[in-house]
Design goal:
Largest sheet: 8 strands, parallel
CATH architecture of the largest domain: Alpha-Beta Barrel
Order of helices and strands: EHEHHEEEHEHEHHEHHHEHEHEHEHEE
Oligomer: single chain
Number of domains: 2
Structural class: alpha/beta
Distance between the termini: 29 Å
Mean pLDDT: 95
CATH superfamily of the largest domain: Glycosidases
């Protein structure tokens, strides 16, 4: 029997935010983890800040690695598994990249051979140090590193899709060498699926690494266009889960909803619990979902300056560790026993060409067609146009009907082709 869906949070320390690595306080971390474990969740995703751990290309700080191990052990004592991101990277609007890649030492994060070898050494070091911890799930290369590779970043590290392929394969291999057999993966924000000029591609996301990771944020135009309680907003996470499946070569590849949250003011605090409940319920209707990891555990302290306003209140727990209504929603979901979702038999055809990804973005015809189907009572998934006639592929995924965006009408009547 397939394992139950995992429920966890992205761990944002209540004291010092991710700067807590500079003044690591194990007692404070333990108190944070106690408040997470009390919700009945089973895992946390944690974020070493890359410049703090590897301030020089040939220096990986032993004390920082030891502090990470202490955090992982403390989580294990509370029944929490841990997944670790390496290259931080980008977090809550701030970039954290070491000085040896910027300004006078400006080198491309994705193509410079010395930078890549430094990154590989760092990821291998973390993975090897964690390899014997039974509650260590695996490494994610970094958090939304694709935002460094193209606009709207103000100073992007340009690379081709082939160069990103090589970068991902090299760094995933470093993680695997350090901790063989763990769940190593990479994770990007939704420009991978929506932005035509992104060198990080859907095929990479759906084929490289142990699982596919998706990050769902409705401030990408979804909530602005449709409203917080709309079908597109409440099903956006499920859409990304199902959209990712078009590119996978393995019909049973798991998908991890690695980041999802309720961003104010588009989702006002008084409506966050309802949005959370709807988002989680709809994601759980996706076959092959590995887990849901909410962003984030604790609010950002108001004593810290210059964060975008929405970042301060995204926690399911307050900054003094009190649970919010959203925490109760996640706790109920984590406790619930539910049947496995049935296969999604209707597949919306999406373009395989990376340069047509904007058709899948909010306002694009694939996006609009998907949610017309949902509003009509269907449970759609997606399939590439290059595979829409492959009966073996369709059968392996349980698909019995394919439909193009042009065939989907905003009524109960729609056309399709039986496979």
């Amino acid at each position: 029997m397939p394992p139950a869906v995992r429920f966890g949070v992205n761990y944002t320390p209540s004291v010092g935010w991710f700067h807590h690595w500079l003044d690591f306080d194990l007692d404070s971390v333990r108190a944070d983890l106690d408040s997470i474990a009390a919700l009945g969740l089973d895992h946390v995703r944690v974020f070493p800040l890359w410049p703090y751990f590897q301030p020089n290309r040939s220096l990986i700080r032993k004390r920082a690695v030891e502090d990470l191990l202490r955090l992982v052990d403390a989580a294990g004592e509370r029944g929490l598994d841990v997944t670790v991101d390496g290259l931080q990277g980008h977090l809550s609007s701030f970039d954290f990249v070491p000085a040896w890649t910027r300004s006078w030492h400006r080198r491309n994060l994705f193509t410079d051979p010395e930078v890549i070898e430094g990154q590989a050494a760092y990821l291998h070091t973390l993975a090897a140090a964690l390899a014997d911890r039974p509650n260590f799930l695996g490494m994610t290369l970094g958090n939304e590193v694709n935002q460094f590779s193209a606009p709207p970043h103000p100073d992007p590290d340009r690379a081709t899709g082939a160069q990103i392929d090589a970068w991902l394969e090299r760094l995933l291999a470093a993680c695997e060498k350090g901790a063989p057999g763990r769940m190593h993966l990479h994770a990007e924000y939704d420009a991978t699926w929506y932005q035509d000029d992104q060198p990080f591609t859907p095929a990479q996301a759906a084929r490289l690494g142990a699982v596919t990771a998706v990050h769902s944020w409705v401030f990408n135009g979804t909530a602005q266009r449709h409203g917080r309680a709309s079908v597109p907003a409440e099903h956006h996470a499920a859409y990304l889960v199902e959209l990712s499946k078009a590119w996978t070569d393995d019909p049973h590849r798991p998908v991890w909803l690695q980041e999802v949250g309720a961003p104010a003011p588009l989702v006002p605090p008084e409506h966050a619990a309802a949005f959370t409940e709807a988002t989680v319920a709809n994601a759980l209707d996706c076959p092959g979902l590995w887990g849901v990891t909410w962003w984030c555990s604790h609010d950002v302290s108001r004593s810290l300056a210059d964060f975008p306003e929405l970042e301060y209140g995204l926690g399911v727990l307050t900054n003094d560790r009190r649970p919010k209504d959203t925490a109760a929603v996640l706790a109920r979901a984590a406790r619930a026993h539910r049947p496995l979702p049935a296969p999604r038999t209707t597949a919306l055809v999406v373009p395989a060409v990376p340069g047509r990804r904007s058709r899948c973005a909010p306002g694009g015809p694939v996006f609009d067609a998907f949610f017309r189907l949902v509003a009509d009572g269907a449970r759609p998934t997606t399939v590439l146009d290059t595979r829409a006639g492959d009966t073996g592929h369709l059968a392996a995924r349980g698909i019995t009907e394919t439909v193009t965006p042009e065939q989907v009408l905003p009524t109960t009547s729609r056309g399709g082709t039986r496979s």
